[in-house]
Amino acid sequence: MLPVVALVGRPNVGKSTLFNVLTRSRDALVADLPGVTRDRHYGVCRSGARPFVVVDTGGLTGEEQGLDALTAQQVRLAIAESSVAVLVVDARDGLLPQDRAILDELRRSGKPVVLAVNKIDGIDEHAALAEFAAFGVAATLPLAAAHARGVDALLAAVLPLLPADGEPSVDEEDAEGGVRVAIVGRPNVGKSTLVNRLLGEERVVVSEVAGTTRDPIRVPLERDGRRYTLIDTAGVRRRARVEEAIEKFSVIKTLQSMAAAQVVVLMLDAREPVSEQDLTLAGHVLDEGRALVIAVNKWDGLPAYEREQCRKALERKLDFVGWAKQVFISARHGSGLKELMRAVDRAHASATREMTSSELTRALEQAYQGYQPPLVRGHAPKLRYAHPGGHNPPTIVIHGTRTAHIADGYRRYLENFFRKRFRLEGTPIRIEFREGE
Ligand code: GDP
Ligand code: GDP
Description:
The protein is of the alpha/beta class and 437 residues long. It has 12 helices and 15 strands. The longest helix is centred in the middle third of the chain and has 17 residues, at 244-260. Keywords: GTP-binding, Nucleotide-binding, Repeat, Ribosome biogenesis.
């Protein structure tokens, strides 16, 4: 399971800047106003040897009253869910009593703390570090998040503090066997209804005491003679205990189950417009390189006109994952489930498809002959040969010259060409260019 690292600190010290550097988040959110309240952000950091979930907790002021008390409570929950806390402080403000109060809070949690002294660009680093040495945090590191300086050292300090990893990698078969499937989606789209439907009503309730179980719940499933393992979906749990706080935390669980899965089923509600959250989830699947099936639920009894509207909206909004099969289902009535599981199988098969170097090189030659990349200062980039670079997602390594100048449009052309040629459905494809022979 992906471990969780919480970024904690007063407002305006640079947490969200660090978050964006760590997650390379596309929707960068950096506010210039002190004390702005905002939602927590979640992302996955893959820059180090081991990926982990990063939570930007928003901000503690160290004096928790009124609204701040609410934020403080959220931060505490985030800390409770995390393995390591990175306390970010502002070198330019120096050591403030609020920082001290937050540190005390972290120490009470018993979690390992890494102290990141941010904004050391253009100031005396040694003086800044010396001041914060008074905190007595063994791992105290200089950082300039806005310039991505000190990030590698920060990762080097954080990674050894993470708990050991017992997960099979995406390529490995599960001990239980079968394809690992995560069913994700916003609250109320019908995840538990689907899981119950798939499992059969009698074995539904998997109890869990709120907040104590750290391992993802895995449930074996057999259907039409094929084996699957359903991973830690909110739906596997009893609904009754789902309260606000826990519901919010399902973001972490969702990221973790996506990472542990081989195929992600993203569930949408046909009766609701496609939301920002749906798109964010799809974006995470894409970043993760996972195979994806989109299950559009509550299709039962939907008038023809609304079905048409829904299909159109999906096509438009989800075109960035246009390779993912959309299956229209009713979890309540059990319709479309055969097709859903077939799409899961296909996605998994595509994600693990064996492709030989000669097949790939032949396809590359044809693609190149059909349409060549635009000239760069009078010279055409040359693409010489290709070989496989891994599964989950299928990775194609292409060797050539001037490959750095190949535009996104051409990359997409190649991707589509390979996708058609090898009939890859339901999985992203990664293309890597290598310069030279
Ligand atoms: P947060 O409230 O803790 O999430 O802080 P933000 O990430 O929103 O940053 C607050 C302000 O500090 C923004 O104006 C950032 O541009 C600035 N900032 C963040 N990191 C650095 C840094 O490394 N150096 C400098 N000089 N400014 C920074
Ligand atoms: P979850 O929060 O994603 O696990 O969603 P639930 O499975 O709890 O379902 C939320 C609500 O949607 C419940 O009232 C379900 O009865 C309803 N629901 C789930 N699946 C369907 C479906 O296929 N059709 C219709 N009409 N309602 C559904």
